[in-house]
Design goal:
Structural class: mainly beta
Membrane topology: Multi-pass membrane protein
Number of helices: 4
Keywords: Cell outer membrane, Ion transport, Iron, Iron transport, Membrane, Receptor, Signal, TonB box, Transmembrane, Transmembrane beta strand, Transport
Organism: Thiobacillus denitrificans (strain ATCC 25259 / T1)
CATH superfamily: TonB-dependent receptor, beta-barrel domain
Subcellular location: Cell outer membrane
Main location: membrane
Helix content: under 10%
CATH architecture: Beta Barrel
CATH topology: Maltoporin, Chain A
Oligomer: single chain
Radius of gyration: 25 Å
Length: 698
């Protein structure tokens, strides 16, 4: 597809703003008849995004992306009053929680594959931020997911997918809003959002988001607070040169709900799970806090070399610090509930990512074939110091919890530093043969070094990607793709015998065929079949986290998003997955489903904007996750569950200011369920929660 960078240079800052309540201009009527005034409300934005920023598909139409991609727009986030990553990503197929139930941050798996917390989460398509603290959504315009292997652009990452968070920026219309939100447990937030453009030619832009709040999720022995300060600047220095700077700092200090450890197998090799505790139960003490803060800085320069060629330079740094007192309930008696609460002390943990990118991109026209090329280099260094102060154990009861007296770390903090260096060159060529056919070829040459105090791994490899796309008619694309990528195999968790050990990197491969189409008033439909092979991990008899051959993930994924009519919008997804481990040398896991991997997931959220009541919209959502094995041996499964959300929001004008009132109830039926499994841990889903919001735009 031919593009002109001279035109793009004048539109590097995206403009997103809420539209006011609209009044139609009265028409002149015959004498003696009264004027008719029709007033109606139309929410800004859409449930469908017209562009995808993530990866090499920079601001491309979703129809031009030969992989499954999902975008959760600001309009969806607002309609659901979503404020967490899982709250956003539950709208996309195959998303589950892993290991943790989300009381502190969202540890997420997609298609049964863990989304690595230091490499798979990106800010504005580039900077790898560290998902070890709840990433705020209040300053984000949308959340994107590029499913599957993404090593061409992002280096060593698992093929679960890239989660990209796009920040709000100043648009052509001024933005000033103040929002108050609360839940019926006592949690509350105040959020200010201000955006302006300045200068004689509006060449300067600034968007500021500030938030402060008290945290309460309806769980016993839980309290805390969180805050956010974020700014997004941009400067169109000339027709050819522009700059962007994003800075965000956020913190969260809350009590951490205890996880429940899966019991040892019975004599027959099966595992008996406990009854699901009350959702408000917390076996940990309120003093067992998870205190974390994060700072992310990303600077970008774009320079237009000619009508057809451009250059971008990016530099970013992400830093997260946390002080954690994590606990797991273990060795319990199913009849009496008596067991042990093991408390792990992890003080002053430090995580840093430094990321640099230089890329030249452009268009080469031709009579029979044209080329859109990207050639770039990335350098990423990830440093961490996962200090440990040991653990203590105290008595606790699953059915009748007692107050946990405050404990101190049994030992001085140990230092467990590690460094990962991931550098690589990449080349991507999108060849267009007329209007209907496209061939995409790419390759990445990577250099990877992973080092701890006791281990060091190095890898050098070249990984290809190829895709072909056919557009039989306008608004429809059919594609097939093959991708390879090197990935980190993971790090042993704190409760394993080899805690902190980094496993060697390994190769993953992905094949995908799919079709995308735009129908109705702008609904994007997607259907894809994928086949992923990747390294598998397991826990051996010595409680060590180790590699376990390959696992294969094959499935069909469906998605729909957009406006069905002027008044009805929806976003939905479904996944039908067949996943199995294929290490014949390990009979205990051969042919079994990887832990925490559901065969089925589905979601559907719809909002109806009542034409008879201007400004009023009613919404409902259903979210289903199928049963999942608790371990790689499939010795027990947690049951599937479905949760229901209902909501209503009304926009009007008070004293000339657009004002929105909203109420949302999540888990309407107060479903009791295991929300998470994986790595030998279980977590309970959140109880019914009523959220209220009032927002005024000035």
């Amino acid at each position: 597809m031919k593009f002109r960078l001279s035109a793009l240079a004048g539109a590097l800052s995206l403009a997103f703003s809420a539209s006011p309540v609209n009044a139609q201009t009265p028409q002149e009527n015959p004498p003696g008849e009264l004027d008719t005034v029709t007033v109606w409300s139309e929410y800004a934005g859409s449930f469908k995004s017209d562009t995808v920023q993530v990866g090499t598909f920079r601001e491309a139409s979703p129809l031009d992306v030969p992989q499954t991609s999902n975008v959760v727009t600001r309009e969806v986030l607002d309609a659901q009053a979503a404020s967490t990553l899982f709250g956003a990503l539950r709208n996309t197929a195959g998303v589950t929680r892993s290991q943790l139930n989300g009381s502190t941050y969202d540890n997420i798996a997609i298609r049964g594959i863990l989304v690595e917390n230091r490499g798979n989460y990106r800010l504005n398509g580039s900077l790898p931020i560290i998902n070890l603290i709840d990433v705020p959504l209040e300053n984000k315009e949308r959340v994107e997911v590029l499913k599957g292997a993404s090593s061409l652009y992002y280096g060593f990452v698992p093929p679960s997918g890239i989660v990209n968070l796009v920040t709000k920026r100043a648009g052509k219309d001024p933005v000033s809003s103040l929002a108050l939100s609360a839940n019926h447990y006592g949690g509350a937030n105040v959020h200010a959002d201000v955006g302006r453009r300045f200068g004689e030619e509006q060449q300067f832009g600034a968007r500021v988001n500030l938030l402060a709040g008290r945290e309460d999720i309806g769980v016993d022995n839980y309290s805390g607070d969180r805050s956010l300060g974020a700014v997004a600047f941009d400067w169109q220095a000339s027709d050819a040169l522009s700059f962007k700077l994003d800075v965000e700092h956020y913190r969260k200090d809350v009590s951490e709900q205890a996880a429940i450890k899966v019991l040892a197998p019975n004599a027959d090799g099966t595992i008996t799970l406990p009854a699901i505790p009350d959702a408000r139960t917390n076996l940990a003490g309120e003093w067992q806090t998870y205190d974390a803060d994060a700072t992310n800085v990303l600077f970008r320069t774009d320079y237009v070399l000619s009508d057809d060629w451009g250059l971008l330079l990016e530099a970013g740094h992400a830093q997260t610090n946390r002080d954690r007192r994590f606990s797991q309930f273990e060795n319990y008696n199913l009849a009496t509930g008596d067991g042990t609460l093991k408390i792990f002390f992890s003080p002053n943990q430090e995580y840093e990512n430094s990321n640099y990118r230089a890329e030249s991109f452009g268009h080469i026209p031709g009579t029979w074939v044209s080329h859109d090329l990207s050639f770039g280099y990335t350098a990423n260094q990830r440093d961490q110091n996962s200090r440990s102060g040991g653990s203590v154990s105290v008595a606790q009861n699953l059915y009748d919890p007692t107050e946990v007296p405050e404990q101190t770390a049994p030992s001085a903090p140990s230092h467990n530093p590690s460094t990962i260096e991931d550098r690589g060159w990449y080349l991507f060529d999108r060849m267009s043969f007329g209007e209907k056919w496209q061939l995409m070829l790419g390759a990445r040459a990577s250099r990877y070094v992973s080092e701890t105090t006791s281990t060091r791994y190095e890898a050098d490899d070249v990984n290809p990607s190829v895709a072909i796309m056919y557009k039989p008619v306008a608004g429809v694309s059919v594609y097939g793709s093959y991708l390879e990528g090197l990935e980190e195999s993971g790090q042993a968790p704190a409760h394993r015998a080899n805690a902190g050990e980094l496993l060697p990197p390994a190769l993953s491969k992905q094949k995908e065929i799919g079709v995308k189409a735009e129908v109705a008033q702008g609904v994007l439909l997607q259907a894809a079949y994928f086949d992923i092979e990747r390294p598998s991990t397991t826990v051996d008899a010595s409680n060590r986290f180790v590699l376990n051959g390959l696992a294969q993930y094959r499935g069909i994924e469906l998605a729909a998003s957009g406006e069905v009519t002027r008044y009805l919008a929806l976003i939905g997804s479904a996944l039908f997955l067949d996943a199995e481990q294929q290490n014949a040398a390990n009979p205990a896991t051969f042919g079994k489903v990887p832990d925490n991997t559901p065969e089925r997931t589905a979601s559907l959220f719809a909002e109806y904007r009542l034409p008879a009541v201007p400004g009023l919209a009613l919404s409902g959502g259903l979210y289903y996750v199928g049963k999942r094995p608790v371990d790689n041996e499939n010795r027990a499964f947690v049951d599937g569950y479905t949760t229901l959300s209902l909501g209503a929001r009304h926009s009007t004008k008070l004293n000339g200011k657009r004002t929105t009132f909203q109420a949302v109830v999540d888990n309407v039926t107060n479903e009791s369920y295991w929300s998470t499994a994986g790595n030998g841990l279980l977590g309970v889903g959140a109880p019914r929660t009523l959220k209220l919001t009032a927002k005024v735009e000035f």
